[in-house]
Design a protein that fits this description.
Layout: H1 3-20, H2 24-36, E1 44-50, E2 53-59, E3 64-72, E4 75-82, E5 85-90, E6 93-94, H3 100-118, E7 128-138, E8 141-150, E9 162-168, E10 174-181, E11 187-199, E12 202-212, H4 222-227, E13 231-237, E14 240-246
Antiparallel strand pairs: 1-2, 1-14, 2-3, 3-4, 4-5, 5-6, 7-8, 8-9, 9-10, 10-11, 11-12, 12-13
Amino acid sequence: MNLQYFLAFLCGIAIFTSCDSRTDAEKIVDKAIEAHGGSAFSSSKIEFDFRDIHYTILKTSDRFEYIREFSDSTGNVKDLLNNEGFARTVNGAKIDTLSEEWIGKYSRSVNSVAYFAFLPYGLNDPSVFKKSLGETEINGEKYDLIKVTFAEEGGGEDFDDEFLYWIGTEDSIVDYMAYSYHTDGGGVRMREVSGVNEVGGIRFQNYLNLKPVDESEPVEKMQELYESGDLELLSEINLENIRVEPLNN
């Protein structure tokens, strides 16, 4: 075999092996991210209102910036969470007296809204572990069930949370999710998509937020409880006034 062709053959094998080395769970999540917006997630600044609070979200491969703004009895509040940490200003003046406890609470609150608004983008972060639990079916539709856990290093304060994602086998859309958490007393939730807004090439989803009577139930039992009608509506997760601004690269 000609040396040039032989080297090209080896290169092709290496590329194929590299691409094929991703697990089934990783491949399923890759398709889901693409179906929900793909590269638009990391090349856009996103703004929306959630429960009368305005959010501005930016997340690329190497940096992030989450801002929430609202007014209360103290004035105009602006919370900023980015790679450098958390900061709060009131009427433009930085607040330097926040305790570590409140910094943690505010950071988790801002991060939580950004995390859910950007799903499934972020599920390929280095701190995320993904495992395929096989196929399942809800309401006559087939889904790949993916379990997500987090590394302690890089996984944030909520690294011990567990998530399940039901991703359509045909359209790669996340129609349901469930998660267990341990902060603020802990609990378990399941979310069902209730509406969709497509803006700037990104699919934004609203959810019905459901809970079981016994919040000590394992997250793996949420589908069974959902199908038996044993989950109650806790709240609705609706994003409003969504704007997507492409970033200048």
